[in-house]
Design goal:
- By secondary structure, the chain is α/β, with parallel strands linked by helices.
- It has one domain (3-289): Divalent-metal-dependent TIM barrel enzymes (TIM Barrel), CATH 3.20.20.150.
- The chain has nine helices and ten strands.
- The strands form two sheets. It has an eight-stranded parallel beta sheet with strand order 5-4-3-10-9-8-7-6. A two-stranded antiparallel ribbon has the order 1-2.
- The longest helix is centred in the middle third of the chain and has 22 residues, at 145-166.
- The chain is globular and about 45 Å long.
Length: 292
């Protein structure tokens, strides 16, 4: 199931997880530096766009427009699409992965299938120059937070050596369970960070979706600063509604983009909003807003 099909279907604090028990709040993780750290001189934030939001365009049309607008990559492509952006000098920044949003790594009975699929996909992604693959916790279905964390750690640890060997990062996505993905377990940054820390691999990180985390916990800039070492990728989207990221919604995306750069982040920020107006005009506006 690809991302489009799947979509159809506690603040910035630290946590301690024990299987069968809820995670507990203890003081926040240390923020990145007292002063702002910027990317290498002359290097701006690398911007991408999620393919599923532009279904009215072919991938070739989207890639050509993205290149002209100033984007450097396309997000969330299936394996048979990875080569298309290259024709336009773009990368595929994030591949559609294995598993589904409801059924992910928090279920041990899913692990063998997820691992088998990932072990086949990771080398292919590396060969195609795709740096990231999205993956999911799955829905709670009665699991405690501690059990879910422990199960995700167990499953992802099986894949970490393969991901490290091939230089591909598995990105556990943070999604809201309030509006869009009821019962999804990886719905707070602190929870996801506990999984990443438990796996202990530089190739297992978080996909921090700004739209989703604004809905669940807010405090976006401080959370990004606090958990920056655990974040490999960002997605945008206007709140409420997941539409344009301009002044029709509540977030200051210009400041958020600046905060991302200040952490020293060198990955991609991908636009994953569903445009209500002319799609390419809205995409051009988003790129301008986040051009820092």
């Amino acid at each position: 199931m690809n991302r489009r099909q799947a979509l159809g279907a506690l603040g910035a604090f630290g946590v301690t997880a024990t299987a069968g028990k809820p995670f507990t709040v203890h003081g926040g993780e240390r923020e990145v530096g007292g002063a702002a750290r910027s990317n290498a001189a002359g290097v701006s934030l690398k911007q991408s766009v999620s393919r599923w939001c532009y279904g009215s365009l072919t991938l070739d049309q989207l890639s050509a427009a993205a290149k002209e607008i100033g984007l450097v990559a396309i997000d969330l492509l299936d394996r048979n699409e990875w080569e298309v952006p290259k024709k336009y000098g773009l990368a595929c920044a994030m591949a559609n992965g294995f598993g589904t949003i409801p059924k992910g790594f928090n279920r041990p009975d899913q692990h063998d299938k997820l691992v088998a699929d990932a072990e086949e996909m990771i080398p292919a992604a590396a060969a195609a120059g795709v740096p990231n693959i999205v993956c999911f916790s799955g829905n709670r279905q009665g699991l405690s937070d501690g059990e879910g964390i422990a199960n995700c750690v167990t499953g992802l640890k099986r894949l970490a050596p393969v991901a490290e060997r091939h230089g591909v990062t598995l990105c556990l996505e943070l999604l809201n369970s309030k509006v869009d993905h009821k019962d999804y377990q990886c719905d707070h940054t602190a929870w996801g960070a506990e999984v990443v820390k438990g796996v202990g691999s530089p190739r297992v990180k978080l996909l921090y979706d700004i739209y989703h985390m604004q809905i669940m916990e807010g405090d976006v800039v401080r959370t990004i600063r606090t958990y920056a070492p655990h974040i490999a990728h960002f997605h945008t989207g206007g709140v409420p509604g997941r539409n344009e990221i301009d002044d029709t919604q509540e977030l200051n995306y210009r400041r958020i983009a600046q905060a991302v750069v200040e952490t020293g982040f060198t990955g991609y920020l991908a636009h994953e909003f569903v445009p209500k107006r002319d799609p390419l005009t809205s995409l051009r506006d988003a790129v301008r807003i986040c051009a820092v």
